[in-house]
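User: Let's play a game. I give you a shape written as C-alpha coordinates, and you guess the letters that built it. Ready? Here's round one.
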Protein backbone atom coordinates (compact mmCIF):
# COMPACT_ATOMS: atom_id res chain seq x y z
CA UNK A 1 0.00 0.00 0.00
CA UNK A 2 2.82 2.42 0.90
CA UNK A 3 4.49 1.79 -2.49
CA UNK A 4 1.16 2.35 -4.26
CA UNK A 5 0.55 5.68 -2.48
CA UNK A 6 4.06 7.09 -2.99
CA UNK A 7 3.51 8.48 -6.54
CA UNK A 8 0.27 10.11 -5.45
CA UNK A 9 1.92 11.65 -2.39
CA UNK A 10 4.62 13.14 -4.60
CA UNK A 11 2.13 14.46 -7.15
CA UNK A 12 -0.12 16.01 -4.49
CA UNK A 13 2.80 17.39 -2.51
CA UNK A 14 2.04 15.34 0.59
CA UNK A 15 5.15 14.87 2.71
CA UNK A 16 5.49 11.30 3.99
CA UNK A 17 5.42 10.95 7.78
CA UNK A 18 8.74 10.97 9.57
CA UNK A 19 9.89 7.48 10.40
CA UNK A 20 11.04 6.09 13.72
CA UNK A 21 14.60 5.71 12.45
CA UNK A 22 14.94 9.47 11.89
CA UNK A 23 13.58 10.22 15.37
CA UNK A 24 16.11 7.80 16.87
CA UNK A 25 18.96 9.34 14.91
CA UNK A 26 17.97 12.85 15.99
CA UNK A 27 17.92 11.71 19.60
CA UNK A 28 21.38 10.17 19.29
CA UNK A 29 22.86 13.23 17.57
CA UNK A 30 21.44 15.62 20.16
CA UNK A 31 22.68 13.41 23.02
CA UNK A 32 26.16 13.42 21.47
CA UNK A 33 26.14 17.21 21.01
CA UNK A 34 24.86 17.89 24.52
CA UNK A 35 27.51 15.62 26.03
CA UNK A 36 30.14 18.16 25.00
CA UNK A 37 28.43 21.47 25.79
CA UNK A 38 26.07 23.21 28.18
CA UNK A 39 23.27 23.80 25.69
CA UNK A 40 20.03 21.86 25.40
CA UNK A 41 18.64 21.32 21.89
CA UNK A 42 15.04 20.58 20.99
CA UNK A 43 13.86 19.72 17.47
CA UNK A 44 10.16 20.40 16.87
CA UNK A 45 8.64 19.05 13.65
CA UNK A 46 5.17 20.24 12.68
CA UNK A 47 3.12 19.32 9.57
CA UNK A 48 2.14 23.01 9.21
CA UNK A 49 1.98 26.23 11.21
CA UNK A 50 -1.12 28.24 11.97
CA UNK A 51 -4.51 27.88 10.34
CA UNK A 52 -5.32 27.58 6.64
CA UNK A 53 -9.04 27.04 7.13
CA UNK A 54 -9.89 29.91 4.80
CA UNK A 55 -7.91 28.26 2.00
CA UNK A 56 -9.61 24.92 2.63
CA UNK A 57 -13.03 26.55 2.40
CA UNK A 58 -12.03 28.53 -0.68
CA UNK A 59 -10.99 25.39 -2.54
CA UNK A 60 -14.20 23.66 -1.46
CA UNK A 61 -16.31 26.58 -2.66
CA UNK A 62 -14.53 26.75 -6.03
CA UNK A 63 -15.00 23.01 -6.54
CA UNK A 64 -18.71 23.28 -5.69
CA UNK A 65 -19.15 26.22 -8.06
CA UNK A 66 -17.40 24.31 -10.83
CA UNK A 67 -19.66 21.30 -10.34
CA UNK A 68 -22.72 23.57 -10.36
CA UNK A 69 -21.64 25.06 -13.69
CA UNK A 70 -21.19 21.57 -15.12
CA UNK A 71 -24.63 20.50 -13.88
CA UNK A 72 -26.32 23.56 -15.38
CA UNK A 73 -24.69 23.16 -18.79
CA UNK A 74 -24.49 19.39 -19.00
CA UNK A 75 -26.80 17.24 -21.10
CA UNK A 76 -26.92 14.75 -18.22
CA UNK A 77 -30.09 15.22 -16.23
CA UNK A 78 -29.68 15.67 -12.48
CA UNK A 79 -32.75 15.74 -10.25
CA UNK A 80 -33.02 19.16 -8.55
CA UNK A 81 -33.43 17.54 -5.14
CA UNK A 82 -29.97 15.97 -5.43
CA UNK A 83 -28.10 19.15 -6.42
CA UNK A 84 -27.70 20.65 -2.89
CA UNK A 85 -26.46 17.34 -1.52
CA UNK A 86 -23.97 16.95 -4.37
CA UNK A 87 -22.67 20.49 -3.92
CA UNK A 88 -22.22 19.97 -0.17
CA UNK A 89 -20.38 16.70 -0.81
CA UNK A 90 -18.07 18.35 -3.37
CA UNK A 91 -17.42 21.22 -0.95
CA UNK A 92 -16.38 18.79 1.78
CA UNK A 93 -14.17 16.79 -0.58
CA UNK A 94 -12.55 19.94 -1.98
CA UNK A 95 -11.86 21.28 1.50
CA UNK A 96 -10.38 17.94 2.55
CA UNK A 97 -8.19 17.89 -0.57
CA UNK A 98 -6.80 21.33 0.26
CA UNK A 99 -6.26 20.33 3.89
CA UNK A 100 -4.16 17.31 2.95
CA UNK A 101 -2.13 18.63 0.02
CA UNK A 102 0.27 21.36 -1.02
CA UNK A 103 -2.58 23.59 -2.27
CA UNK A 104 -2.37 25.63 0.92
CA UNK A 105 1.21 26.58 0.08
CA UNK A 106 0.36 27.43 -3.52
CA UNK A 107 -2.61 29.63 -2.56
CA UNK A 108 -0.97 31.70 0.18
CA UNK A 109 1.63 34.43 0.10
CA UNK A 110 5.20 33.93 1.24
CA UNK A 111 4.79 36.65 3.87
CA UNK A 112 1.79 34.90 5.41
CA UNK A 113 3.58 31.57 5.61
CA UNK A 114 6.68 33.19 7.08
CA UNK A 115 4.61 35.00 9.70
CA UNK A 116 2.70 31.88 10.71
CA UNK A 117 5.88 29.80 11.03
CA UNK A 118 7.61 32.50 13.09
CA UNK A 119 4.60 32.81 15.40
CA UNK A 120 4.36 29.04 15.84
CA UNK A 121 8.10 28.79 16.54
CA UNK A 122 7.92 31.53 19.19
CA UNK A 123 5.01 29.78 20.89
CA UNK A 124 6.88 26.46 20.87
CA UNK A 125 9.96 28.15 22.30
CA UNK A 126 8.04 29.89 25.09
CA UNK A 127 6.01 26.78 25.80
CA UNK A 128 8.81 24.37 26.50
CA UNK A 129 12.35 25.55 25.72
CA UNK A 130 12.88 28.90 27.40
CA UNK A 131 13.84 29.07 31.04
CA UNK A 132 16.21 26.14 31.52
CA UNK A 133 18.42 26.51 34.64
CA UNK A 134 21.31 27.97 32.63
CA UNK A 135 19.08 29.61 29.97
CA UNK A 136 20.85 27.61 27.27
CA UNK A 137 17.89 26.09 25.43
CA UNK A 138 17.86 26.01 21.63
CA UNK A 139 14.74 25.30 19.56
CA UNK A 140 15.01 24.10 15.97
CA UNK A 141 11.56 24.41 14.42
CA UNK A 142 10.75 22.63 11.14
CA UNK A 143 7.36 23.37 9.57
CA UNK A 144 7.00 20.94 6.69
CA UNK A 145 4.15 22.42 4.63
CA UNK A 146 5.77 25.84 4.49
CA UNK A 147 9.25 24.33 3.98
CA UNK A 148 10.72 26.53 6.68
CA UNK A 149 13.32 25.69 9.34
CA UNK A 150 13.96 28.25 12.08
CA UNK A 151 16.10 28.30 15.21
CA UNK A 152 15.67 30.29 18.42
CA UNK A 153 18.25 30.40 21.21
CA UNK A 154 17.82 31.43 24.82
CA UNK A 155 19.84 34.30 26.24
CA UNK A 156 22.53 32.05 27.72
CA UNK A 157 23.49 30.82 24.26
CA UNK A 158 23.21 34.28 22.70
CA UNK A 159 25.52 35.69 25.36
CA UNK A 160 28.25 33.07 24.95
CA UNK A 161 28.21 32.09 21.29
CA UNK A 162 29.78 34.52 18.78
CA UNK A 163 27.28 36.07 16.41
CA UNK A 164 29.05 34.80 13.31
CA UNK A 165 28.80 31.18 14.52
CA UNK A 166 25.06 31.47 15.11
CA UNK A 167 24.60 33.25 11.78
CA UNK A 168 26.43 30.43 10.02
CA UNK A 169 24.08 27.89 11.60
CA UNK A 170 21.00 29.88 10.56
CA UNK A 171 22.35 30.14 7.02
CA UNK A 172 22.83 26.37 6.94
CA UNK A 173 19.20 25.91 7.98
CA UNK A 174 17.99 28.32 5.30
CA UNK A 175 19.84 26.33 2.66
CA UNK A 176 17.82 23.26 3.67
CA UNK A 177 14.50 24.99 3.01
CA UNK A 178 14.78 24.34 -0.72
CA UNK A 179 15.32 20.60 -0.15
CA UNK A 180 12.24 18.37 -0.32
CA UNK A 181 13.48 16.00 2.39
CA UNK A 182 16.10 17.82 4.48
CA UNK A 183 16.51 15.19 7.20
CA UNK A 184 20.15 14.36 6.44
CA UNK A 185 21.11 18.00 6.11
CA UNK A 186 19.34 18.80 9.36
CA UNK A 187 21.29 16.15 11.23
CA UNK A 188 24.53 17.53 9.81
CA UNK A 189 23.54 21.08 10.77
CA UNK A 190 22.94 19.98 14.37
CA UNK A 191 26.33 18.27 14.43
CA UNK A 192 28.00 21.41 13.04
CA UNK A 193 26.22 23.49 15.67
CA UNK A 194 27.57 21.12 18.31
CA UNK A 195 31.13 21.96 17.24
CA UNK A 196 30.54 25.65 17.97
CA UNK A 197 28.64 24.95 21.19
CA UNK A 198 31.45 22.80 22.57
CA UNK A 199 33.85 25.71 22.11
CA UNK A 200 31.71 28.57 23.35
CA UNK A 201 29.00 27.14 25.64
CA UNK A 202 30.80 24.96 28.19
CA UNK A 203 29.02 22.69 30.65
CA UNK A 204 28.47 24.67 33.88
CA UNK A 205 28.94 23.27 37.35
CA UNK A 206 25.94 21.34 38.70
CA UNK A 207 24.33 21.34 35.28
CA UNK A 208 20.90 19.70 35.20
CA UNK A 209 19.30 18.90 31.84
CA UNK A 210 15.54 19.30 31.74
CA UNK A 211 14.63 19.11 28.04
CA UNK A 212 14.02 15.81 26.20
CA UNK A 213 16.22 14.93 23.25
CA UNK A 214 13.53 13.18 21.25
CA UNK A 215 11.93 15.27 18.46
CA UNK A 216 8.60 16.87 19.23
CA UNK A 217 5.59 17.03 16.98
CA UNK A 218 5.02 14.44 14.24
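Assistant: Ready! My guess for every position:
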Amino acid sequence: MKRFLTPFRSWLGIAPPLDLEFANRVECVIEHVEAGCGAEIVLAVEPWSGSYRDINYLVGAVCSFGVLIVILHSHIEVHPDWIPLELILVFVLGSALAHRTVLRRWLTTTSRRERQVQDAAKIAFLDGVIGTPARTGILIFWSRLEQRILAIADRGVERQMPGECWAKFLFELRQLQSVAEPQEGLLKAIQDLGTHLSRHVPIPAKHVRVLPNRPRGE
